[in-house]
Design goal:
Its EC number is 3.5.2.9. InterPro entries: Glyco_hydro/deAcase_b/a-brl, LamB/YcsF/PxpA-like. It catalyses: 5-oxo-L-proline + ATP + 2 H2O = L-glutamate + ADP + phosphate + H(+). Catalyzes the cleavage of 5-oxoproline to form L-glutamate coupled to the hydrolysis of ATP to ADP and inorganic phosphate. The protein has about 250 residues and is of the alpha/beta class. The chain has a single domain (about 1-240), classed as Glycoside hydrolase/deacetylase (TIM Barrel, Alpha-Beta Barrel), CATH 3.20.20. It is about 40% helix and about 15% strand. The strands form two sheets. Strands 1-2-3-4-5-6-9 form a seven-stranded parallel β-barrel, surrounded by four helices. It has a two-stranded antiparallel sheet with strand order 7-8. Strand 1, helix 1 and strand 2 form a beta-alpha-beta unit.
């Protein structure tokens, strides 16, 4: 099992999360590329820290939405979206090389992530961008999403993920952040929830129904309050249960 987190999201004087602490816990790091968060110097610091810790790095690509932290829906043309994703991957590849590591996978962020899970046109644009840059890049995507099959049909390796700190709808989609209960905060409850899912493949939706999620990675959002404690508790529970932790992509 892999544990991933969204990192490199600080911007100038504004601090977002605790990258150093998270990198001592997670096995994969989704590093911002400057479109929704992150400045070049801060991104480079995070990449260097990831390299020191042996954490595998992925490009956390997004809509160009600094003000909205990449969480506002957008409708770019295919030409724009393909180019935006290529640009972000390329920027992170350059910084990663300077930091002594490499970009092994791509995880879209925020509104882009949720849109491409079910929007075929934008999903195909992101797939096209990965294929244009490096077909060996792995795509990290929402468990149960139609995007997974489409990407695999185009030849990409795809890994599905489950979210530790987000509530699920009955259909396996994430509850909108605009709704009460969408983001989970109790570290002990979240850790127990993830252990139960890892052992049974089932998670409880916000409506109370049990749903099945097939995934090989757990995401803990680095910007969530108490993210470090949450990640620590999840890792401790999985370790205690004998569930081996390893990155899904080769370093």
């Amino acid at each position: 099992m892999d544990i991933n987190s969204d990192l490199g999201e600080s911007y100038g004087a504004w601090r977002m999360g605790d990258d150093a602490a998270m990198l001592s816990i997670v096995t994969s790091a989704n590093v911002a590329c400057g479109f929704h968060a992150g400045d070049p110097a801060g991104i480079l610091r995070t990449l260097r820290a990831a390299a020191r810790q042996g954490v595998v790095v992925g490009a956390h690509v997004a809509y160009p939405d600094l003000v909205g932290f990449g969480r506002r829906n957008m409708d770019p043309t295919s030409e724009e979206l393909v180019a935006d994703v290529i640009y972000q991957i390329g920027a992170l590849q350059g910084l990663a090389a300077a930091a002594g590591t490499r970009v092994a996978y791509v995880k879209p962020h925020g509104a882009l992530y949720n849109t491409i899970a079910h929007d075929a046109r934008q999903g195909d644009d992101v797939i096209a961008a990965l294929l244009a840059v490096d077909p060996a890049l792995t795509l990290l995507a929402l468990a149960g999403s139609p995007l997974i099959a489409r990407a695999r049909e185009r030849g990409l390796t795809v890994v599905a993920e489950a979210f530790a700190d987000r509530a699920y709808n009955q259909d396996g989609t994430l509850v909108s952040r605009r709704l009460p209960g969408a983001v989970l905060h109790d570290a002990e409850q979240v850790a127990e929830r993830m252990l139960h899912w890892a052992q049974t493949g089932e998670i409880t939706a916000i409506t109370g129904e049990r749903i099945r999620l097939q995934a090989d990675s757990i995401c803990v959002h680095g910007d969530s309050p108490g993210a470090v404690q949450m990640a620590q508790r999840i890792r401790a529970r999985l370790d205690a249960a004998g569930i081996a932790l390893a990155p899904f992509a080769a370093p």
